[in-house]
Amino acid sequence: MKFLLFLILLAAVGYFGYERVIRTSFDYPDQFRVSDQDGREVDIRLLARDETHFEFERLSDGRLFSYPIERLSFISRLRLRMYPERSLVALEPPVEPAAKGLSQMHREAMERELEKLRAEYDLQISKASAMPSCHERATLVHRLRETFYDIRKMEYDLEAFDLREGAALGTAR
Fold this sequence. Notes:
5 strands; five-stranded mixed β-sheet; 55% helix; alpha+beta
């Protein structure tokens, strides 16, 4: 009899502990990084989830998406399942289908970063003519060189990404 009471007490403590700790600590919206099965990652703000899909805001540009949970990595799926189910509703603005997937989102982020680097390079070039001292020009030339190498590296990374994606899809570029 004491053992039965102990089991009932243990079950009650477990249930209320779960409700108190898990349900309140995993609440919407929440920000974290998810990865797909290929290891590509994106930072998101989780808005809702159901059994098969989840809605999120991509933090890099604020766009809203709905994405299938099954296409995520094991760890990301586990983390998402910790959040209580919330019905997926049409959000303002409407949620876009994630037909592109994380791969395309990753490529777009790389392109944006490349554009930022090019803009920074152009700004540094325009500053070069205004530098009065030899030391300031030397420092700027050093920064220009670093930015130039960063641009080349990003272009190489984009090309390598396209080649990997083309190989994964079975098409050669």
